[in-house]
Amino acid sequence: MTVLVVTGTSTGVGKTIATAAIAARAIAKGQSVVVIKPAQTGVLPGEVGDIDDVARLVAGVRTIELIRYPEPLAPDTAARRSGMRLLSLDEVVSVARECVEDLVIVEGAGGVLVRIGEFTLLDVARELGAPIVVVAASGLGTLNHSELTVRAIEAAGVEVKGLIIGSWPTEPDLAERCNLEDLPRVTGARIIGSIPAGAGQLSGIEFTNRAAEWVDPE
Ligand SMILES: Nc1ncnc2c1ncn2[C@@H]1O[C@H](COP(=O)(O)OP(=O)(O)OP(=O)(O)O)[C@@H](O)[C@H]1O
Ligand SMILES: [Mg+2]
Fold first, then answer.
1. pLDDT digit string (tens) for 69-101?
2. Pocket test for ligand 1, best of 5, 7, 17 (most atoms within 8 A of CB)
3. Cα separations (Å) of 151 from 144, 164, 188, 217?
4. Mean pLDDT of 42-57
């Protein structure tokens, strides 16, 4: 079993879409895949969360969400305000360890230092001995956010697997074109994928057929 942990330079950068693309590629290669979203915020019971997006885009993936909080906040803040319980690190780690799939992908919430409970995704990755994939925005500002994220991961003694551009526009501007060269230079991490803008709106079949062209975590 291989475990990959997916974080982003912030919320809304495309972690879920990148997670779906990695899952789709692995499934197309014949692997079994489970995607775990430890804590989902900002959705009510019955509404669409990140794992539902993954399941819609990727046929054959198994998905697990451990807890969801209604308010669109960091999980620990949302937990305290709702009076619901906090997740524990042990719970997340044991659920991941119990998975029988070839590939286990854990999607964090927001950026890497966001408290999922009284722990962060760095603790999850360290406990599981898993590398972290950093999903980054394409445009101005991403050099700083990406370097900060990579440095925080490495300072925690966790391996950075690489960067994935969460949404690459059809007509990249000057900053975006320069960032393709500068991101690996300033972070020391490889770009292992780039998801075209609009990919999230594709049908599951189209998404899965094309995902292998977008990411290469190996
Ligand atoms: N490549 C893409 N194509 C189309 N839509 C995208 C793409 N990447 C991201 N989006 C859209 O941008 C929004 C944010 O993306 P996403 O939900 O994947 O972010 P996230 O990093 O997973 O955020 P969260 O911290 O909430 O988990 C979503 O509405 C998603 O559909
Ligand atoms: Mg997400």
1. 999 999 999 999 999 999 999 999 999 999 999
2. 17
3. 11, 16, 10, 20
4. 95
